[in-house]
Structures are given as structure tokens and as C-alpha cells.
Amino acid sequence: MSTIDVKVPDIGDFKDVPVIQVQVKPGDTVKAEDPLVTLESDKATIDIPSPRSGTVLEVKVKVGDRVSEGRPLVALEAADEAVSGPRASRPPAPPRFSPVGAARTPEAVPVPVVAPPPASAPRPPHLSPRVPSPPALTPRGSVPGVADAPPFAARLDTGPTRTAHASPSVRRLARELGVDLSLVTPSGPKGRLLKEDVERFVREAVTQRAAPVRGGGLEVLPWPDIDFAKYGPIEVVERSRVQRSSAANLARNWVMIPHVTQFEEADVTELEALRTRLNEAKQGPKVTLLAFVMKAAAAALRRFPTFNASLRGEDLVVKRFFHLGFAADTPHGLVVPVVRDVDQKGVHALAQELAELAQKAREGKLTPVELSGGTFSISSLGGLGGTAFTPIINAPEVAILGVSKAVTRPVWDGRQFAPRLMLPLSLSYDHRVIDGAAAARFTSHLRELLEDLRRVLL
Ligand code: CAO
């Protein structure tokens, strides 16, 4: 028998992550890989699994504690004597990460000792709306320069509370809306505050304050609350936590960032021929257009560093590395895995990594590290269709590239119309940081790179 201190392993950039569930108590017997403690960042739920089978001696954290890498969580008396000694001090098994709200399969996460609250229960993915709703309630105080004199300040703007039992995403929503959580009535299991509780609270507060407010703030009308059941059958579908979390993020980004979208079209006829040749040669993983777009985007970012930056207060943090996130459509919602050092990788390596990360995203198996550190994002709907769209910037990044479906159409070459494969590009940028002229230069350069990828070498 040996005693192991199970600690928080490397969980990437996440620090001070709240404990949302302690799944064991002293005296419990656990098997290797059984989840012991669940952490939740705003992006991910992370199960810390037991490295060995054994008996729980002591639980060293409680729900609400904030933990970072190295913090002891549970003392475990390991059952397997044969592997005591050096192995007893080995690091715990890798944390299991699920996008917030991901449906958990029995293989991925063994049945926890404490059943997860209904809010995190899997729900039929086909019923979940894909596109986040428009913000029901527009953040007020979070917009620079418009925070003064909120219309319902007396009830709402009384500062954050430390006692309410709520996930980080709910806390953030409350912060953005200026809601004091201690005033909100919880409806979740074990008195947990849900996003809906915060929204209901604000709806009620806004409704009570019927008079419209004039001024520079983003005062909005109350969200229409219509009982559609009066008109016909309805179904109320609970949205996954990843959907709710991305909705809150998207709403903030949409409201706080002055977006402009620059459209461009690249002739990728030659590129597509190269892609077809590469795939026919079967000398590597299947290459999709996205791998080339990523490579070209990294080269364009190197040329225009302002696009590979983020705002910190008045300053611009320009990143000298090129970690590109790509939006991945998964059954539990939108996630953005990050491919690191894109500028240093070949197209085959990028294609391989894209395929692996997309697969892990769909299975809810991405690690926190794979979801962090991005400097620029690409959202490709090219495999699905559409001619253009206006992607929302992934704050604190300052630009995002949308890629739509390439189509062959007649293009005038100066003498005649010729069939060319044209790829639509949509670059949304933060107009506080990037001027329209710079955006046009960036997209033109990106087009040139895609039309002749040899330029990436220059
Ligand atoms: N034009 C034409 N065809 C394209 C294309 C484009 N721009 N992009 C991809 N395709 C083709 C691919 O080549 C592939 O065809 P073949 O099988 O004949 O080679 C097919 O479309 C499917 O590609 P894919 O989608 O599987 O692969 P990908 O590398 O292009 O994209 C991923 C991977 C993860 C980005 C994608 O699967 C996905 O999830 N896209 C959705 C992203 C999203 O939701 N964005 C919106 C975010 S905001 O709500």
C-alpha cells in the first residue's frame, strides 16, 4: 500500500479554475481512471481522474475552491502494491476535458459517484440550435464609455457576490450584465444559479422599469417573452453548456468589438489542382483546402503583425508566434481548437493535425492546451456551402477569417471568360485596431498567396 497525493496536472493556460464537483469522499474505493474532482473553466469541464485504484483517504478541496497546476486534490491509498515505489509518485492520468456542456459517453467518463446535475446532462444534439441566439440582454457596463447610469442600477449594479453557487460562465454573464448574483433566485440543482436565472432576473428588472432610457448606453427593450404554446405545440430544448458559453462569449464580442467585414475572392484553380495531385499520390494524410488557407494565413499574419495581436487596455499585444484556431462544428456546439506554430509546419502536417483535432473536438476529447493560445482564428464553412458570411471575432483576437465554398465560375482573363475555381474569403476585423485600408491590404495579400502559394516562401 502506498499513499498518493493526486494533484492538479498540467491543464494548459487555465489557472485558478473553480472546483465544481467533488466526486469522492473519504473511504470511497476508486478504480484507476475514475473521476475524482471536476473543474470548470469558462471553456471546459475537466475531470481529474484517479491515477490508480485504491481508497480515498482525504479530500483536500471543496466545491468553489480555485485550483491551479500542482494543487493537491485527494490523498489516495493505492491498492496495487506491485506498482508501489517510483510509480506511486507518477503524475496523475491526463485530465479529461470536455467542452463545457459536452455529452459524456460512458467510455469517456465513467459514471461519477455523484450524479451530474441535470443542467449538464446530454441532450439530443439534433434539437440543439447551432447558431447562438442573439444576446437576450445586451451587456451594459462592459462597453467602454457607456457604463454610467445604468437604468436599473439600483437593483442590479451592486457589485459581485462571492457566496452564490454558480459556474464561471454564469458569473461572467452576471458580471457583464451588472447583476448581483446574491439577489438572484436559483433554480438549478442544489441551489445552483443558472444562466436562465440571471436572464430572468434582468428581464424582470427591465420590465419593471418600463420607461425607456435615453443616453449613450446600449439600453434595449426587454426581450420579447411570448408564450408560443398559445399558438401551437412547442418543445423547450435545453441548450448544452458549450452552446450557452459560446453564446455569452459571442454576445460580448459582438457588442464590444466594432466589427467590419472585408470580402475577397481568391482564384484557387491551381491550388486545387495541387491539392488533387497530393491526395491522389496518397503520400500523406488527406489534404483539404483549409490546410492551405491556414498556411497562407500564417504568412499573411507575419507580413501584417497587427492582425496577429490583441488589445490590452490601450496597448496592443503583438504576438510573434502563429497559433491559429479553427472553428469546429461538433454535436455539442462550436469549439475552436488551436494549431500551434502554423508557420513552421508543412501542409501535410497541418492537414494531419487539423483532422486529428477536428476528430477530438467531435468526440469532446480536446485538452485545455489544445484549446488555448490562439492568435487568429479561421472559420471554414467551405465544406458546407454559402457564398460569404460575417464571422464574429474571437476576443481578444482582432480578426477572424471566414472561408466559404469555392465554386467554379467564368472569370474574365482579359481576353475571354475562363472557368476558374473561386474561393470566397470574409475577414472580420476589430476596427479599433485595424483600418479598412489595412484590412484590404491583408486580404489582397492573402489572395495573392492562395493564388500562388510559392509566395509563402518569400
Ligand atoms: N470550398 C470547397 N470545398 C471545400 C472547402 C471550400 N472552401 N473547404 C472544404 N471543402 C471540401 C473538402 O475538400 C472536403 O471535400 P472532399 O472530401 O471532396 O475533399 C469537404 O469539403 C469536407 O471538408 P471538411 O469540412 O471535412 O474538412 P475541412 O478541413 O475543410 O474542415 C472543419 C474541417 C473542422 C473546419 C469542418 O469540418 C467544420 O467543422 N466546419 C464548420 C466550422 C463552423 O462551424 N464554422 C462556423 C463558426 S461560427 O458559427
Task: Explain what this protein looks like in three dimensions.
This protein is an alpha+beta fold. The chain is built from eight helices and 20 strands. Helix 6 packs across helix 7 (about 345-365). The structure holds oxidized coenzyme A (CAO). Oxidized coenzyme A (CAO) binds near residues 290, 382 and 405. Oxidized coenzyme A (CAO) binds near residues 289, 327, 354, 379 and 403.
Give a brief description.
This protein has 458 residues and is α+β, with helices and mostly antiparallel strands. The protein is 23% helix and 22% strand.
Tally the beta strands: 20
Largest sheet report: 7 strands, mixed
- Helix share, percent: 10-25%
Rg of Cα set: 25 Å
Q: Roughly how many Å apart are the termini?
A: 61 Å
Number of alpha- plus pi-helical segments: 8
Uncertain stretches of 5 or more adjacent residues: 82-90, 99-162
Question: How does the overall form come out from the CA principal axes?
Answer: globular
Strand content is 15-25%
Overall SS class: alpha+beta
One letter per element, helices H and strands E, the order comes to: EEEEEEEEEHHHHEHHEEEEEEHEEEEH
* Unique bound compounds: oxidized coenzyme A
Mean pLDDT: 80
Question: Which characteristics define this entry?
Answer:
5-stranded antiparallel β-sheet; 8 helices; globular; binds oxidized coenzyme A
Strand and helix layout:
Layout: E1 2-7, E2 17-22, E3 29-30, E4 35-40, E5 44-49, E6 54-59, E7 66-67, E8 72-78, E9 96-99, H1 153-156, H2 168-177, H3 195-208, H4 241-256, E10 259-267, H5 269-281, H6 289-303, E11 309-312, E12 315-318, E13 324-326, E14 328-330, E15 333-335, E16 338-339, H7 347-363, E17 376-380, E18 399-403, E19 407-412, E20 417-430, H8 436-451
Parallel strand pairs: 13-17, 17-18
Antiparallel strand pairs: 1-8, 2-4, 2-7, 3-6, 4-5, 5-9, 6-8, 10-20, 11-12, 13-16, 14-15, 18-20, 19-20
Helix pairs in contact: 2-4, 6-7, 6-8
The structure holds oxidized coenzyme A.
Oxidized coenzyme A (CAO) binds next to helix 6, strand 14, helix 7 and strand 17.
